[in-house]
Amino acid sequence: MKNYEFNDVFDCVDIPVFIHGKDFRLIYANQAYLSIANTDESEALGKLYWQVFPEQETPPESCYAAMLSKSATSSRDEVSVEDRVYLSMGFIKRDEGGDVVFAIHSIHDITEQKRVMHLLQSAAEQETALFELSPDAIMMLDEHGFTDCNPATLRIFGCASKEQFVGYHPSHFSPAKQPNGEDSFNLANSKIKQALKNGNNAFEWRHSRLDGSEFDAEVLLVAFTQDGRLILQATVRDISQRKEAERKVESTVEKLNLALEGIVRAVSKTMGFRDQYTTLHQKRVADISCAIAERLGWPEERIKGLKLAALIHDIGKISTPTDILTKPAKLSHAELELVREHAEIGYQILKEFEFPWDIAEMVRQHHERLDGSGYPQGLKGDAILPEAKIIAVADTIESMAAHRPYRLSVGLSGALNEVRTGSGKLYDAEIVNAALALFDGETSLEDSEVIGSSEAKNLTAP
C-alpha cells in the first residue's frame, strides 16, 4: 500500500486514521494514529490492528462481525483505554463478490460525549441541568414551531438569544432544498409526522445557521405528551467533521482505483519497450473485451477490472525470449510450450498485488477453454471466470485478425468464424454472440470502431 500516497490525504488530518487488510493487519496509519499509539510505522505495519491501538486481546466486536459478513460496509466500536473512551468507525471496501478488499477506520475520542451521556442517564432531578449542559442542540417543538431550546442550540445555529430561534418552523433553519433535492419545508413536515406516528424518528439533515452557512447534522425526534399536549424533543448533532472524513475516505478509494489503473498502464507501457507487438495486442484485446462486456450489460466497476486484466493479460511473456516472440516462422513444440508458460508466469507476477478485482486469476485463465482443452490448469465450464472467458474470445479475435510475425492474418471474418465454430465448446456462447453482433458489418479490425484507442491504431508491430 506504500505505492499510494495516503500521506497527502490523511497526514494533515488530526483524527487518527488507519487501514487494514482483510486479515486485519495494518497496511497504513497516519501520523495522528501513530502518535496516539505511541509507536512508529516500522513497528505498527503488519500487526493485527487491535494489538497496536486500541490495544486489546480480541478484535472489536462490530468490526469483526462486519468483516466476516458479505454485505456490511461499516462498523462502530467503542473501546476504553485507561481513562479515555474511543469510537472506532470503519468503512469497508468490498469487491463485486462481496469479499473485503480493505477497511479504513477513524478513531474519535468520545470521552466527553460519554460523560454527557452518563449525565443524561442519571437521576430525573438532573434533567434540567443536563438540558443546559448538553453539547448537542436540544429543542422542543409543537405543530407551530420551536417552543424552547438549550444553550447549545443557540451556539450551533448561530443565534444570540432564544428570541431568534423560538417560534420558527424547522425549515427556517434549513436550506430551501435538502441534498436529495426535496423541498425542506415539506420534508421536515413529513419527518415530524413520522415521529408523531411512531414515537420517534432519526435521520440526517442539512441545517443552516442564522447567517445562512450550512452544516450536516444527525437529528433525533422523540414524541411525548406534556400538559395534555403532544410535544417533540429534537436533538441535533453537528456531524460536519464526520461527513468531511467520509468524503476524504471516498476520495481516497477513488485515488486508490486510479493508482491501480496507473500501475497497470505503466506495466503495459513498459512491456512495449521490449515487445511492441504484445503491447498493441493487449490494448486491442482490452478494447474488444470492454465492448463485449458493455454489450452484455456489465456494470462499469466490473468492466474496469476486466479492462485492467486485458491490458496486461500477456504480462507473463516478459519471461519469453524476444527471438521466440518475433520469430518469423512457425514455432517448434518446445518453443510453443515455452510461450504457453506466460499465463502461469503472469499469475505469479500479479498474485501479490491486492487489486479490488481478481486480476491475477483473470490473467491466469485467459487461455482456458470450456471443454478443458485450455491451459495452464485445464479448467472447464463455470470453473473459468467470466472475465477470463471474455478475454479468451477477444484474444482469439485480435490474434487471428492481426498479422503475427510468423503468419499472415486470416482477416476479421476468419477470426469471427473461428470463435463462431468454437461457440459452446471452446468459448462461452453468450460472449461469442455478443462479439459477433459487435463486429456485424465490419470488414477489418483496424478500421473497426471497437478498437477505440487512437494510440493503439497508430502503433505498428515490428
Q: How would you describe this protein?
A:
The chain is of the alpha+beta class. It is built from 19 helices and ten strands. The radius of gyration is 30 Å and the shape is elongated. The relative contact order is 0.07. The model is unreliable at 453-462 (pLDDT under 50).
List keywords for this structure.
single chain, 462 residues, alpha+beta, five-stranded antiparallel beta sheet, 19 helices, 10 strands, elongated, disordered C terminus
Walk across the major sheet and give the strand order.
Answer: 2-1-5-4-3
Outline the biggest β-sheet: 5 strands, antiparallel
* Terminal-residue CA separation: 37 Å
In terms of structural class, how would the helical and strand content be classed? alpha+beta
Low-confidence runs of at least 5 consecutive residues: 453-462
H/E topology pattern: HEEHHHEEEHHEEHHEEEHHHHHHHHHHH
